[in-house]
Amino acid sequence: MHRRRFLTNMGLGLTAATALGTLAACTNGVDDGDGDPTGSPSAPAGSSPSDRSGVIVVGAGASGLAAARYLADKGKNVLVLEARGRIGGRIWTSEQWGGTPVDMGASWIHGVDKNPITDLAKKAGARMVTTDPESATDYLANGHKADDASEQAMQRWRKAAAKALEANQDQNDDQKDVSMRSVVERALNWSSLSNGDKALASFALNDYEHEYSGSVGDMSALHFDNGASIRGKDVLFPGGYRQITDLLAKDLDVRTEHVVQQIDWDAAGVTVATDRGVFQGDHVVVTLPLGVLQSGTVTFGPGLPADKRTAIDKLGTGVLNKCYLRFPKVFWADTDWLMFAPDLDKYGQWEQWINLSRGVGQPVLLGFNAADFGRTIEGWSDAQIVGGAMETLKTMYGGDIPQPVDFQITRWASDPYARGSYSYYKTGSTPGMRDALAARIGDRVHFAGEATHRESSATVHGAYLSGIRAAKEIAG
To answer: Against a cut of 0.85, is the pTM above it?
Structure first.
């Protein structure tokens, strides 16, 4: 969830799951080809480096660039291999609208206090704009703005869902794990509720899906919120999150459009085979997203340890997709968040919107879709997705609102180099599995990425810190 309002109001600790946010493909599901912003040229097809690298880093996302930056600053010979034609991974700032950059992937620093990304943003001179989780306008399924009684009812169901989940965690001594939905439905005596009450309770559940990216039907009721609490304001970058990755990548040797296929190692070193050549080094830092590890498209020669394979199989990779709509004028409420509580049969559809006109100075709305519905619409055409978005906005603001003049859409689950947005705790997974995922193999193979950070998974700062941890395993 991006707002964090209903959980914050109840004093519950949160992980900043949406910092990695929607991590995307462009409208046709492939890279936008905006090139390598570091200016580092890609090696020609079929080439191999003449010199052995000290460290090969697989992936130029936040974790890979953090590891490479740390090692390079320590004087290590570092080579970064990136499958895309750009750096950033699941940080991707689109420049399609010229002077209005928009982040298709990570958007926020969720909690600026003592956050390493805040320090990097200041170093990069990046302007930050606060979004307020309390600045929200709620709308009912009929399109009417929620009155005081409706707001109280919404809050009541949010608290009921949160209380049920908290009680399950406090009382579950035998550690039997079930889904979040089953816990809430049992506690609320679901079959006795009216469809209207079920719709409001479901609206509360969808908040969790936006926060953690998984479906409440298969998210762990025991561990879904495991992690460090968030402190400080939420901020966006009007100039784009790429300001952070550009800073990290400065002067690094990054080879874009090198798709890694196999990673081997032995006592003599490591070998990384790509579609454009074979590279050898002393160490490798693997920062592949969990979804890519789960896909099996990259093989590991000697094989992975059993506990690492188990972690890959049991942790979840979720979906949070974005639909940016640019309009000729602003017609919506002047609050940061616009929330829509649909009827039960439209559960999870276009429930959360953010008013970007405040931050970017242009009439832009951003709609989110998470979990099952977010995954479903990846198979829709652009026109169908925009049409669905507009149907909801017309319900909220009337049929005479203007059509968008342009749009940008993400499809993260369809992206072969992401296979989803960010990781979550699926039913049956445990926090210890993130430790297993992070564990190095011998003294040669090291792992990083948001999914490997136990306290701050699914965040940019978690990815960054995991890269620093892996680099320290090599350089101290």
So the answer is: yes
